[in-house]
Specification:
The chain is α/β, with parallel strands linked by helices. About 45% of the residues lie in helices and about 15% in strands. The strands form two sheets. The chain has a five-stranded parallel sheet with strand order 5-4-6-7-8, with helices on one face. It has a three-stranded parallel sheet with strand order 1-2-3, with helices on one face. The model has no long low-confidence stretch (mean pLDDT about 85).
């Protein structure tokens, strides 16, 4: 056996990866994992979809480019126990600390509460956290669709008054009830691991072949694309080493 693609579930993946590691067989996970822990001490295990931790690292690095802005960090961890939220905040501070002294970082943390709890005061809480004298960066540190939808709606209303730039997790691309106009109006920046260059000849050919066989074209997140990429990348690599 030269290559294993899968399995899907994490507990099965760990068992297969442990077995394959001793035999130096590459194992490729085709789905998103909760974290990168499975990759530890296993050089033959590959993850083709970025975990939340990878997205956080990329976002933190990009956010640090706006080091002189006023930062508002919104999350729904009102109990203060979410390790993902803590990790992301620490990453942002670590990146910002390369650009300016810690005490000069303008950073406000805003736990999210729904309108049903604060009524009209919900948007006022966010308004008070923003600055009218400098540009603002709002970071939505949540994967909860209702929280994201309500927050973006409030931000869009305030964007007429304040200079705002918004950052968020990849899940924002997959929330159907979000207004695309609002997202474009705010020039929201989202880390997203999928990019298909439809101008490339091999992509055009793949689309043509897929359309001829299935009478439709594969969606952006379709496993048709991922299957093609995984097979092409790893089989090409194996062909080089043989």
């Amino acid at each position: 056996m030269d290559l294993i693609i899968g399995p899907v579930y994490s507990h099965n993946l760990s068992a297969v990866a442990s077995y394959a590691r001793d035999l130096a067989i590459p194992v490729v996970s085709p789905v998103t994992l909760m974290n990168n822990s499975a990759l530890s001490d296993n050089p033959t295990l590959f993850m083709t979809n970025s975990s939340l931790e990878i997205a956080q690292k990329a976002l933190a690095k990009k956010i640090s480019e706006y080091y002189d802005h006023n930062f508002v960090f919104i999350h729904s961890d009102t109990a203060g126990i979410d390790e993902d939220v803590k990790r992301f905040k620490n990453m942002i501070f670590a990146e910002l600390s390369f650009k300016l002294p810690y005490e000069e970082i303008k950073f406000k943390e805003l736990p999210f509460y729904s309108r049903s709890m604060f009524d009209n005061d919900s948007i006022n809480r966010l308004s008070h956290a923003l600055s009218g004298q400098s540009k603002n960066v709002i970071i939505i540190a949540s994967e909860d669709p209702p929280m994201i939808s309500e927050t973006i709606s409030e931000i869009h209303g305030l964007s007429r008054k304040f200079d705002i730039k918004v950052f968020g997790y990849p899940v924002i691309r997959d929330i159907d009830n979000l207004s695309q106009k609002e997202l474009f109006d705010m020039d929201i920046m989202v880390y997203y691991p999928y990019w298909i260059d439809y101008s490339k000849e091999d992509v055009k050919q793949f689309n043509s072949d897929f359309r001829q066989k299935f009478l439709t074209e594969p969606l952006e997140k379709s496993y048709a694309w991922q299957g093609y990429d995984i097979t092409y990348f790893f089989l090409s690599g194996m062909a080089i080493t043989w």
